[in-house]
Design brief:
alpha+beta; YerB-like fold; ten-stranded mixed beta sheet; six-stranded antiparallel beta sheet; 4 helices; 22 strands
Length: about 350
Amino acid sequence: MIFHRGKLFFSITVILLAVILIIFSILALSKSRQVAPVAVEPVVEEFHYRHPLSGEKSKEPIDFYPVVVMIDNAYNIRPQYGLEQADIIYEAFAEGNITRLMAIFDDNKNIEKVGPVRSARPYFMDWASEYGGVYMHVGGSPEALSEISSYDFVNIDQIGASEIYFWRDENLEAPHNVFTSAANWLRVGEIKDVNNCDQSIIWNFVDAKENYVPSPVDFSIDYSPAYKVDWKFNDKINLYQRWQGGDEFLFADGNQVTATNIIVQIVPSKIIDIKERRTMDTIGGGKVYVFNNFGLQEGRWEFGDGRTRWLAENGEELKLIPGKTWLQIVPSAEMISIEEISE
């Protein structure tokens, strides 16, 4: 009996030891199979495209056609309508010492009122043809009207059959009372064969880095006393603000006009008639100054393959920052006054 009890005790002990060994083996195996925690990388959105007008990033190609509108800049008709939504604005002499604006829009912009719309000039048409799309105006100089059919854009002239794409505000004095809208230029796209923007034609847009230190400068352009332009950098909003004739230049919504890039392009010109209309050499090249958060960049503008480029001495394109770009066209660098911003 004692022998049997001892044998039973031994058997139970063996079984318990085996169970303990199995439990430890399972725990060891479970521990060996535990996967070390994996560091989760932050999701970085990839952008393969930029908007050809603004340089803003996009995941997909942007489907649009440019709409180019001639805009009045007479000192007594401000504010103009629609400028706040233009991606690119050109400013150059029209006749005498009066400047005119040419605004370029993405046709997808929803804008109820744009204008006052004014007449065409050949050099504005040259710049408009670099974008294609639609060119909207009210008549033009004799030179412009004789040449406009040869340009590579859809010509929409308020004087004639295209009057349906404009309206006149009878409360305003002509010729400063013609306006258009996004609804009108969308009708153009429905009725006429308008080519979309070439996505491969884009300037050298560069994003500012986190450790980037802005180094902008203030400057002015003396077209004439009533049209003297001042651009002053506001470091609180990281944009340039515009004055004209000593007054704040305002959008129609009451906010002061701002721009991310201002390109001052020296373009030789000469007066060609008694009304002091001008001709400009838009393809010969010349000096250029680019103002933005990167500071003042100097170089040369060149025209080739249907587009104006702004190049440094080493041949690389000058840097633009995504946003609104304003081009100031002047016949002489003597009209430009540059002043460094004090710390």
